Automatic annotation (TrEMBL):
Protein name, entry field: Porin
Keywords attached to this entry: Signal
Gene3D superfamilies membership: Porin
Organism of this sequence: Oceaniferula flava
Pfam families: Porin_O_P
UniProt xrefs under InterPro entries: Porin_dom_sf (IPR023614), Porin_O/P (IPR010870)
Signal peptide residues on this chain, from the entry's feature table: 1-23
Top-level division of the source organism's lineage: Bacteria
């Protein structure tokens, strides 16, 4: 099975990034790029469109896409010993490139790769090269099937979304970094099978995934596994979202290769519009697992909440966003802060690895949309406190970032 997955990975990868396909002797010429009317912003939505013909019998579209995310931060705080620390860090946060091809009237092949290994947090250098696949998926979609408006079956390397912030792509998140709660319950890339369905105001997903770690497609045999459920309701001006992730491997051996870090988690989120404000509230509750799976001081239940209001100060141009996040746990190391940059190794400090039983953070920032989410500048300030086994630690981080995608 491992060999088969390696072959499948190679075939999927080659097709996703080159766009080559067997299409017989007839293939429509590439569609002419849509005029951008002299606006460089319009170019973001057209530059990657290589080919499109919805009436073509074999290949309906082929497009390329990528994203560049740069950021810098100044952090100042006090560690568990009461010692002060501070530093300035800059990082290429993400550098990705990929392709998507729709073919045979229902199939879609999508893949993108990570092209940066930035070691700033470890005091190391920056390497531009292939690292791994972010996603690599083959899907087939049917319309008006079995009473649903749309049903899709997908196999491949998934980005499994748990919690509201993870359902928002890094291209469009409103804060420089997701909350610590989001990073705890959402992590990893999983190889597996998912079924997506839509009917009316409802959309849902069920997935079964392998915990085999790989830079492309992992094996589905003889490894830990996990189940995933997601359900959302579009209520017209508001949205209700439920996610559930269950790690089968946490019950016995504790040897899952990706390292989920918990046994299960349930998340519920509500997003709505109140006058000129957008408000998102996300609550989560889960179990880290028993001491057979994780260290005893990291076992037991955990919980958390995220509240994020935002509003435009200048319509579609300048946005204000705030966020409050809290996590708590039964055990003294049951929750953990973000790695950026509170627990960065490059800092000369002791924060107990960022682990504790209570973590609070508050963030406030501004987003300047140069070309919508395609090109934007983000600034923000975040204050966080951690109750760690050896004492309390806190820090203030000032952020500046540039985000671009096409």
């Amino acid at each position: 099975m491992i060999k088969n997955n390696q072959i499948a990975s190679a075939l999927l990868g080659a097709t996703a990034l080159t766009g080559t396909a067997i299409a017989g002797e007839v293939m429509a010429p590439p569609a002419a790029p849509a005029p951008n009317n002299g606006s460089w912003c319009d170019g973001f939505s057209t530059v990657g469109k290589f080919y499109e013909d919805k009436n073509a019998p074999f290949i309906q579209s082929l497009k390329f896409f990528g994203r560049v995310q740069l950021q810098g931060a100044y952090i100042n705080g006090d560690d568990v010993d009461g010692e002060s620390f501070s530093d300035t860090l800059d990082e290429v946060r993400r550098l990705r490139f990929g392709a998507e091809m729709k073919f045979l009237n229902g199939f879609k092949l999508k893949g993108n790769v990570n092209l940066i290994d930035d070691g700033v947090r470890d005091g190391e250098g920056r390497e531009y090269s292939y690292q791994d696949w972010d996603q690599l998926k083959l899907s087939y979609t049917l319309k008006d099937f079995a009473g649903f408006d749309e049903v899709s079956l997908t196999y491949g390397r998934h980005k499994v979304k748990v919690g509201h912030e993870s359902h928002t792509s890094s291209k469009k998140i409103k804060t420089v970094e997701r909350s610590a709660l989001s990073n705890k319950i959402y992590d990893g890339r999983y190889t597996g099978i998912s079924v997506d369905a839509e009917r009316g105001i409802w959309a849902g997903t069920i997935g079964y995934f392998s915990l085999d770690e790989s830079d492309a497609l992992g094996s589905l045999d003889n490894h830990g596994s996990a189940w995933y459920l997601s359900s959302s309701f579009d209520l017209g001006g508001s949205n209700l979202l439920f996610d559930f992730f269950y790690n089968n491997d946490a019950d016995d051996s504790g040897d899952d290769e990706i390292g989920v870090g918990y046994e299960w988690v349930a998340s519920a989120a509500y997003e709505t519009q109140l006058a000129n404000w957008n408000l998102m509230v996300n609550v989560a509750y889960g179990d880290n697992g028993s001491s057979d799976y994780v260290k005893e001081e990291r076992s037991g239940k955990f919980w958390g909440v995220v509240v994020m209001p935002s509003t435009y100060l200048i319509e579609d141009k300048l946005e204000f966003v705030a966020r409050y996040s809290y996590m708590g746990s039964d055990e003294e190391e049951g929750v953990r802060t973000n790695s950026r940059y509170f627990r960065a190794d490059v800092l000369d400090h002791d924060v107990d690895g960022g682990r504790g039983d209570s973590h609070h953070s508050i963030y406030a920032g501004l987003n300047w949309y140069l070309c919508g989410h395609n090109s934007k500048i983000m600034v923000g300030a975040e204050y966080e406190t951690l109750d760690a086994p050896e004492g309390d630690a806190d820090a203030t981080t000032l952020w500046a970032a540039y985000r671009m995608y096409f």
